[in-house]
Amino acid sequence: MTTSAREVRQTVVDGVTVEVRRSSRRRRTVSAYRQEGRLVVLVPARLTRAEEGEWVRTMLARVTASEQRQRRSDTELLTRAAHLSRTHLGGRARPSSVRWVSNQESRWGSCTPAEGSIRISDKVRVMPGWVLDYVLLHELAHLIEPGHGPAFWSLLSGYPRLERARGYLQGVSATAGLALTDD
Ligand SMILES: [Zn+2]
């Protein structure tokens, strides 16, 4: 058995109860997780109070962002798709199902117009909301217009971040060496 100096303190940051555990055994890494509503942050004992405070804010932001991404469930996708259809397509695209898939290697999104089903790649899950919205809107537009002709792109023309989102996806694809397209 080794003994280690350990100090536990509770604070409240941005309305969240944070339990800071300082450990002399911990050398460099800081980690955090949610436990019964509070945020537990594990830090090396050698950190100054100011450093600790900065880390607590950083980890709170990270954990919150990760929780938000996980909330992007299939249900949220369908709600989001319905909203996009109303806003940009006059409600004409009415998907029967919208879901996340992990087996889609070559496309960000795909759809089966005959069934009204849309599938979105898991890879989009961690991307900004405006990129996800573009991928959704792209597939929704295919429920109305199957090809990529002028009629298709005119359906998307009302989406304000169209070119930015396409550029974002091309950048991710190129960086990862993926042959993904937004077709
Ligand atoms: Zn397409």
UniProtKB/TrEMBL annotation:
Signal peptide: none annotated. It comes from the Bacteria. Residues 94-164 form the YgjP-like metallopeptidase domain. CDD domains: M48_yhfN_like. This is YgjP-like metallopeptidase domain-containing protein. It comes from Intrasporangium calvum (strain ATCC 23552 / DSM 43043 / JCM 3097 / NBRC 12989 / NCIMB 10167 / NRRL B-3866 / 7 KIP).
